[in-house]
Amino acid sequence: MRIFSGIQPTGRKHLGNYIGAITQYVAGQDRGEAVYCLVDLHATTVPYDPAGLRESVYDTATTLLAAGLDPDRCIFFRQGDVQEHAELCWLLASVTAFGDLNRMHQFKEKSGAQRDLVSAGLFFYPVLQAADVLLYKTNEVPVGEDQRQHIELMRDIAERFNGRYGEIFSVPEARIPEVGAKIMDLQYPDSKMSTTGGSEQGTIYVLDEPEAVVKKVRSAVTDSGTEVRRARDKAGVSNLIEILAAVRGAEPEEVERGFDGSGYGAFKQAVADEVAAYLAPVRERYAELRSDEAELERILARGAERARSIAVETMLDVRRAMGVGPVRVSQ
Ligand code: AQP
After folding, report:
1. Rounded to the nearest whole angstrom, what is the distance from the C-alpha of residue 222 to the centroid of ligand 1?
2. Residue 149 CB–ligand 1 contact under 6 Å
3. I want to staple 59 with a disulfide (CB 3.0 to 4.6 A). Which of 11, 112, 239, 283 is the partner?
4. Concatenated DSSP letters for 102-167?
5. What is the DSSP string of 50-80?
6. How much distance in Å is there from the Cα of 194 to the middle of ligand 1?
7. In 202-262, where does DSSP find H-type helix?
8. What whole-number distance in Å separates Cα of residue 145 and Cα of residue 180?
9. CA 174, CA 158: separation in Å to the nearest integer?
10. Confidence band (pLDDT; 50, 70, 90) for 115?
11. Range of 78's domain?
12. 298 and 247 in one domain?
């Protein structure tokens, strides 16, 4: 089974990215052939600083390695190093419905936040994402809940392509965690914890110092009640229950039972301490790994070479099926 996921090189990854995606990436290395990609081409769809992008790739690569990605047990690379991603994106455009792209929630949210230019790249973001996944004939895509719609779209794209040109692609399944699929902002618990849209105080970064983590959790917005249980009108407490359950690898019901009658103060302190302890080893390992940029480049280059060997084969199939380019003797 092949597993693929991409993550934006936005540098500072948060607890939502960590629980929703990164821990699944690490686990995926034991479940199948895992392919993980830092999507620098996606990062160009909103205004960004070119020199900063390279730095952010190193920051994010280091975070993933510190979290437990092992370049010997997965293919770990930078999207921009494998040009087949961009080529397949264009070719998949022929089987992507404009109306479907127009319905994507992420495009609506992100385009609304742009001050100057809403780039066509932002509109095309899910097509490039489909290319990333389909290029590796992927079976499973570990992601958070916010990516469900994009995965549905890429499944439609794969099916339409296969129907029109022949069975080339696997139709991928999303793998969304049961607990922690959508971690919410601690200050605005009706909105997801987010790199671009969240509040600084409500966002726990993987690299935050323990004191900062404790402060953010202790000042998380809750309701005026005292009961530690999940409910529609208790978004803040529900989020903290979900976070603690994910950190402990437990069910949210167990967390509720464990804090029955203890009040919000003791509960928040426990969440704060356990999240700080959960992230500390990643932060420490990050500090050890980040300065060796030559080694990071070496890891990404080796990953790109391995990724390319798969991607080139897929593109031969795609080009042949679509009648693009010269006839090639099969290789
Ligand atoms: N709040 C979240 N809870 C659980 N999972 C989440 N993910 C994102 N937010 C949450 C998952 O993290 C992976 C990487 O997402 P990305 O590549 O989009 O990286 P990002 O841009 O840094 O993440 P954000 O926070 O989602 O950025 P914004 O809000 O700016 O777009 C994905 O699998 C995602 O589901």
Report:
1. 23
2. no
3. 11
4. HT-HHHHHHHHT-SS---HHHHHHHHHHHHHHHHTT-SEEE--GGGHHHHHHHHHHHHHHHHHH-S
5. HHHHHHHHHHHHHHHHHHT--TTTEEEEEGG
6. 6
7. 210-218, 235-248, 252-258
8. 9
9. 14
10. confident
11. 2-175+292-322
12. no
Q: Domain containing 244 — which CATH number?
A: 1.10.240.10
One domain for residues 52 and 147: yes
Residue located nearest, by CA, to atom 7 of ligand 1: 17
Average of per-residue pLDDT across 224-236: 94
For the cut 70, the answer to whether the pLDDT of residue 35 exceeds it is yes
Q: Residue 283 is inside which H or E element, if any?
A: helix 263-289
Element of type H or E holding 6:
strand 2-7
226 and 133, same structural domain? no
We report the CATH number of the domain holding residue 6 as 3.40.50.620
- pLDDT on residue 244: 98
Query: Is 61 a domain residue?
Result: yes
The two three-digit tokens of residue 91, written as one number = 């070719």
pLDDT tens figures, 260-311: 999 999 999 999 999 999 999 999 999 999 999 999 999 999 999 999 999 9
176 in contact with ligand 1, CB cutoff 6 A? no
At 58-98, the pLDDT tens digits run 999 999 999 999 999 999 999 999 999 999 999 999 999 99
Taking the alpha carbons of 227, 228, 230, 235 in that order, is the dihedral positive or negative?
A: positive
Residue (of 219, 200, 233) closest to 264 by Cα position: 219
Its pTM surpasses 0.90:
yes
Output the CA 179–ligand 1 centroid distance in Å: 15
Tell whether 260 and 277 lie within a shared domain: yes
Cβ atoms of residues 10 and 47 within 8 Å: no
